[in-house]
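Let us practice reading a record.
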Amino acid sequence: MNLETKWLEDFVALANTRSFSASARQRHVTQPAFSRRIRALEQVVGATLVDRSTTPVDLTPEGQLFLVTARNLVEQLNESLGHLRGLSIANEALDIVAAHSLALSFFPPWISRLQQGVGELPTRLVAMNVGEAIHVLREGKCDLMLAYYDPYASMQLDPEVFPSFSIGQVKMLPVSLPDEEGRPRFPLEGSESIPYLAYTQGAFLGSSVRMLLKNDALRLRLRTVYETAMAEGLKGMVLQGIGMAWIPDFCIREELKSGRLVRAGGEEWDVPLEIRLYRCSLVHKPGVEKLWRQMQKLPRDFLQA
């Protein structure tokens, strides 16, 4: 196969910009020359990788699959060249994407515990919603993804391509500001309308709550007064007494302990969730491979937060 490395780099640049002209400028070539190189890559691969009928251009399904391979090859080559030039990759940071609430409240204590088992672990963490994080992982733009797992949620990942470790069991709890007697200001029991602080339509945690309420009359009493994609945002509104919300338990431990927040309903209203750490098996970054091997040797209960 007569495949040139610069074609792979061109393709990765095009996937990032979704523009032939912008990619050509980035690669310091004319646009006609850049287009010819992408065509040459498609001929060698034997598949159409770019859908040129859209603006901005998009990748075909074959292009999406090949993008992971292209990024992997380019990164491996750069790492090998760096090693040959005497550049150390031992302390290269791992790029991790995580759901906002996990990045803020879960990741710090969990990574501290993990490092007790695997040693110092340089990381770069970016918080984003779960849908974006899955897209980033699928395109090979990160090394690891920390996300909630719900077997009934719509977004699932092929375990063969995206293996994972279960690292935590959490619950989403319905919570409210207490009244003067310490009872929930907005209880789920009863027949009155309840001001509801909800997750936005595309938020992963929102889909889990909707599954809980799908066939229950309670949903008819919930009057949505505020929406956000972030659990921390809902927590802030609950603390202001605006309404009630479902929030992951690790985000509100201190508030429940101090009595600043109370449960709005019994355990039957809890939403159980699992937290998992994912990787893409098509990407072979030395740091990720080493961490995965180390984690496989640790006792299962050690990985659990």
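A brief commentary: The longest strand covers residues 164-176.
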